[in-house]
Write the structure tokens for this entry.
Amino acid sequence: MNRRVLLGIACLFCCWSLTNPTKLSAADKPNIVLIYADDVGFGDVSCNGSASFQTPNIDRIAREGVRMTDAHCPAATCTPSRYAMLTGQYAFRQKGTGVLPGNANLILKPGSTNMASLLKSTGYATGVVGKWHLGLGDGKVDWNREIKPNPNDIGFDYHFLIPATGDRVPCVYVEQGRVVDLDPADPIEVSYQGRIGNQASGADSKDQLKMKWSHGHDQTIVNGISRIGWMTGGTRSRWIDEDMADVITSKALRFMDENAKRPFFLYFSTHDIHVPRVPHSRFVNKSGTGPRGDAMLQLDWCVGEVLSKLDKLRLSDNTLVIFSSDNGPVLDDGYVDEANEKLGKHDPNGIYRAGKYSMYEGGTRVPMLVRWPARISAGQVSNALFGQIDLARSFASMVNATVPDGAFPDGRDELDTLLGKDVQGRPHLVHEAGGLALRVASWKFIPSSKVREGLGPWTTNAMDAPGALFDLANDPNEQKNIASEHPEKILEMQMLLKSIRERN
Ligand code: NG6
Ligand code: CA
């Protein structure tokens, strides 16, 4: 080939690259930092309207990128949302994906494709830091040895985990398959069947508690807080809740430092603002709304640390940063922490109805902020319908990876929506909260006869058969059930939901 022909090909390639800005060559693979907060509602961030306290670092992502107003986690609780986000498969298709106990086995199977394994196969360094809640090991977990399989076996090069939740035993960190700083002379045992050992519990030693439980959470006391489940041993390894944000943030920053020279994917899964809400003393009483708001300030600090690390490493321009949440907000989720009493005028769910555990919008419509200066113009607001279920396939598209057959079965390539270019987004989306609800354009169909309501877990709202239909364009707060006026729409949505449900 002569030089002219080569030059011509190079020019064509340049033109193609410029006209296809979302398709990158391998050398341009952006870093991906997915900051996944816990139980943060649509209205808990000031860029979505929280006026009670400010979240300037979280807001910075929106200011420098896209703020999505109609983005949803797959489910209204943690485990199914995370399972679905990482596998691109709705959790209802897979048994055992409900909220897991702290000794559950790993529900992502080694050998099957997930977001991390796909990115790893294209050369990414992959890490998960923070809340896991997708189980560990296989069979009875022995916390005193290497626990396998663990995230290393499903596509993460590095992990530093809160194994389940902050309110579930074992209250220890797991790094690369092992409990951190375990004293072999003080082995750990965990039970969700019945009491083990002779440690104080929340039920019988209330005087030892620094934060009282309101429902559940009355078993083993760790760090003055009683938890769900029983544990003995591992005294030296037990976490201090007040230090948790500092500990996990430092691990996230270290992962970025160590992988600054290659494309990396960091799944930074914060504990905040899940219960127990026990932020570090530097955030206590700073939000004016009690521990829940203080935990939001702490979360905002964590986000700030991540963003300034990217600045310092000069990686901000070519890093896709996403901030979102695993389910909607909740006030009293089992501890007496004044979440209701100190709420004031704060609207954790913004203008939406209900929150965590609910099929109403508040259950799954979460903050979704996306920044990638090299490819996304700043200051956009997108009202496109978007589901986190699409993240894995969209990342695959972004890095030009081939998705293996059968992987990410419910996910769509919504990269253009993520980048603010497609203003429509998904044609339909399933919400999972016990039962299933369906969105099609602005229509919302809730077939269930009982739906959790409010910002606490224990209230239900009985609906009239055949369920409820709302037009979110006119009624974003889902107040006016127009099912009886639109029997044909109900039928159409029932059929679509049935066909999605039956698809494998
Ligand atoms: C519930 C817990 C709640 C929380 C939730 C899981 C009780 C009474 N309630 O069972 O406190 O831990 O599970 O939250 O135990 S999630 O965000 O991880 O899904
Ligand atoms: Ca959650």
Q: What stands out?
A: Confidence is low (pLDDT under 50) at residues 5-27. The chain has two domains: 27-183+238-427, 429-502.
